[in-house]
């Protein structure tokens, strides 16, 4: 039994990779917004408020918000985007990586850190597709004709 992905897995891998790339960028962007929100909330005791008494977008004291709390929006959206990111990571690990890495589950966990550590998802958005495309290229590579012995030399071929 062959270990690793099969040729029939390639369409699933490509679809998952496309969604993964988008989710990686979105998750990373909202994670940066989440870091800004955490700094304003816990460092300055302010939340990001939309359409409040202080204007269209303002940093308002946490207990006095009357407009839309953008901080809570960032928390919720990042959480759901991370679930999508983690799902794509899992499918990629399950179909493309499993059985090919010495420690395949650690690869899954390492890529999962992209939605937790700021800017890491942008790095993975470039690295993971390269690795997966190399795996796909290995699968698509023809095995080549089976030969029964060494190729004939030019003298043997002309005789």
Task: Characterise this structure.
The chain is mainly α and 159 residues long. The chain has one domain (16-140). Helix content is 62%, strand content 10%. The radius of gyration is 25 Å and the shape is elongated. Keywords: Cell membrane, Membrane, Transmembrane, Transmembrane helix. InterPro entries: DUF3817_TM (IPR023845). This is DUF3817 domain-containing protein. The chain crosses the membrane at residues 22-44, 64-93, 105-124.
Helix-strand sequence:
HEEEHHHH
Count of separate structural domains: 1
Structural class: mainly alpha
Q: What share of the residues lie within helices?
A: 55-70%
Give the termini separation: 43 Å
Question: Biggest sheet, open or closed, and with what strands and sense?
Answer: 3 strands, antiparallel
> Beta-strand percentage?
5-15%
Number of helices: 5
Numbering strands along the chain, what is their spatial order in the largest sheet?
Answer: 2-1-3
Overall pLDDT confidence: 79
Q: Low-confidence stretches at least 5 residues in length (pLDDT < 50)?
A: none
Using only CA atoms, what is the Rg? 25 Å
Q: In one word, what is the shape?
A: elongated
Report the count of strand segments: 3
